[in-house]
Amino acid sequence: MAQSSRSGVQAAVLVLLVLTAVMLLALLTRTAPHPPLEVAPFALAPFLGASLAIGAVAFQLGHDGTRIGSAFALLFALTALVSFGPQKYVDPAFSRIWPAVITAQGAIIIIVVLGIKALIEEKASDR
What residue ranges are annotated as transmembrane (predicted)? Predict the structure, then answer.
């Protein structure tokens, strides 16, 4: 992965780490507007913990620009969609959470676009 792409993905992963951590803290402290305690099919706090763990791995491995780092960054982006995906536009609390939703969606787009671009470039260079 090129250095500029790697830096972009790292920054986007860091954005999602911060937003996910804030969301978990809001949930635990019940600070309004906090996420629900459960969303089908799981409790949200353990899911957010797993998401943060995946994000931490993505951040650590992303420094090397390896395929596994890109894969973890893409997986982290997918987990963030549960909390910040397009379904949030119809959430009753959207008027209070939109800054986090829009910021997270921007970070998710950066991770997906640069991550897929990097994987395609690696495939091409392997040939």
Answer: 12-33, 39-61, 68-85, 97-120
